[in-house]
Amino acid sequence: MEQSTPWEFSDDRGRLAVAGERPYRIVAYIQAGATLWDHGIRPVGLFGSPHDGAAPDPAKSGELPLAEIGYLGAGQALHPDALLAAEPDLVVAVTYDGEQVYGLTQKAAEELEAHVPLATVAVGPGRSLAEVRERFAALAGSLGRGEPLGAARELDAAEDALRQAAGGAVRPRVLALSPAGPERVHLARPGSWPELRALTEHGVGLLEPAAGAGLNWSTVGWADAAAMDADIVLMDVRVNAARPEQLRTDEHWRAIEARARLLPWNPEAPCSRRAHTRFFRLVAETVREAAGRV
C-alpha cells in the first residue's frame, strides 16, 4: 500500500503549515481563492474581508465560478465554525503586515489553526508584484498545480507592451484612487501597492499624493484630487468603493470625469500571471490612447 507523503509550506508569517498529506479541500480568502483558481485549484469555500458583505465581491473574485463555490461570510458575520463546516484540509489567506491573517480576527485565526493548517501569502508594501506572484505560485506548486505553460510568455509580452507605451515622448499622468463618496476620496500612495509600484517600474507616470497621514492612502476632498490633473484615473471597483454615478453631485469629480480616462482598478486582484497580463495590457492600451490626447 502506497504511503501518503507529508505536506508542508512555510508561510509569510514565518509559520510552517503542516499536513499528513497534500491538502485537496481548500478554503480561501476570496483574493487568494481567485489566484489559486488561475493555477488550476478549485476552492471548496471562500470568505471575505471586513469591507465585504453577505455576498462575495465580484471585483475580487477573478474568474471563480461564484455560483458553484460556497461563500462562508465576512467581517463580524464570519465565524471559524463556518469555515470548519466546509471540512477544509487547508485555509489560505493573505497578510499585509506579515502577522495578521487578513479577514480574520486574531482570535478567530488561532481557533481555526487549532483544527486545520493555515497558510498566508504577504501582499503588502514589503513585497514586489513579482514576489507576491511567485509566492502564490510556490504555494500552488506545493499543492501539485501550476499556471499554463504559456502564461509566463504572455506576461513578458504584456510587460514589454507596457514599457513601450510608457516610454513615448508624452507621458500621461496616472492617479489611482478609491472613492469614499461625494465629499472624500482616498488617493493611493503608489509605493504601498505592489501593482502600482510595478507600473512605476515599467515607466508609467503614477502621481504621488501629498505627504501626510495614511500609509496606503491619502484621504482628501475631490478638489485636491482634481487639482492633480490626471489624464488616467485607476478607479477602485470593489463593492466598498463609491460608484461614479454617486459622485456626480460634486463639480470636481465631474471635472475629473470629463478630463481623464477612467480605468477599473482592483487593489485586491488575483496575484497570477494571467491576471497581471490582463492588467498590464489594459494599462498599456490606455496609456497609448491617452498619450495621443495629451
TrEMBL record:
Species of provenance: Streptomyces auratus AGR0001
Origin: domain of life: Bacteria
Name under which the protein is recorded: ABC transporter substrate-binding protein
The Fe/B12 periplasmic-binding domain, residue ranges: 68-258
Cited InterPro entries: ABC_transptr_periplasmic_BD
